[in-house]
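Follow-up to my earlier ticket, as requested here are the two runs.
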Amino acid sequence: MEASEKLPLDQAPALKNLGPTSTDIIFIIFVICVLVAVAGVGRLTYNEGKKTEVAKQNVDAWAKWLTDAGPLRAKPGFQFAACAYTPPATDASGEVIAPAAGSKAKGITWGGCYKELTAPEGPLGSLRNAFTKELPLVAAKCDPVDKTLAGQLVFEKLVPAPPGSAVPVVASPLVEADLIDQKMQLRISACDGGSYTTKPFELEF
């Protein structure tokens, strides 16, 4: 048979299938699923990050208001009476005059101040917890075990420690019954999406 002679069609070698095999199809589907999962996790992480940023912004808003109001709340006519206080009376030498026996100082508490500030018409009443869409609640502390704390605020009062202590200040939760009728040091933070404490902000109020 000459080299130029063609084989009959029924004797020609079968053409190979150039399309994807079943294994290729399974692999492609697997890669697509992985990409979709990665995109979903990335979007979830992004949204959680945005919510945590809102929690930090809430801390900044509280810190700014309390810092600005601190020097003003001892002045007559302060707009937010539940947060005001009267400085202790002093004599000619500058010594604090002790209140008379049996007299009662006006009880300005944190609970009353907080309610006035977070009322719908209050300066901080528009803040919202991005995780719940509600007014941010106040927690005693952030705890990663309790995920319901996400977005909540933490207020702490800082009191100087006794001389010789290992730490300069003692921190404790600021509760509703605490008197705020004098200057005080505060620390404010928030709980992130994992209920971990965000960077705290310290101020004088």
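Run two:
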Amino acid sequence: MADELVYVSWGGTGRGATLRTAMERASAAGKGLLYLAILDDASFADLDATFLAVVKDELEWLLDAQLEVTKAQLGIEELPVRVLIRGGDVAEQVAEVVTTMGETEVIVGAPVPLADHESIESLLEMIRGRVTVPVDLITADAEGLDPT
């Protein structure tokens, strides 16, 4: 699907409230939602290929379930959603996915792990430097949402 909003998650990024906000934004814009789950190097680089495959399968099942439950809770069952699991550097993976999709929007849910980064803003600037589409950070507090 070419007309999707991309919600990016890695290493514990985001909360249920930020995913709900991303799904509401996608629905309001008449777009689908791509949940891009990145198995980042800081958290997963030391796993062997067999165990990494198991982690990917389990993560995909969990995220598919979370998306379906959240769609039902929000009453937006018609929202097209899909999960894509990638491994490696976060900014690089976001750039590769966005390049293949074309025009879209990237949403990162806070809190954001800061391994190898001085601040959230420096990490977002790194991602923004690799894509030509809007990159937005959603925080549960900023949206007035329950952070759980």
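The only thing I checked on run two: Residues 59 and 104 are 24 Å apart (CA to CA). Let me know what else you need.
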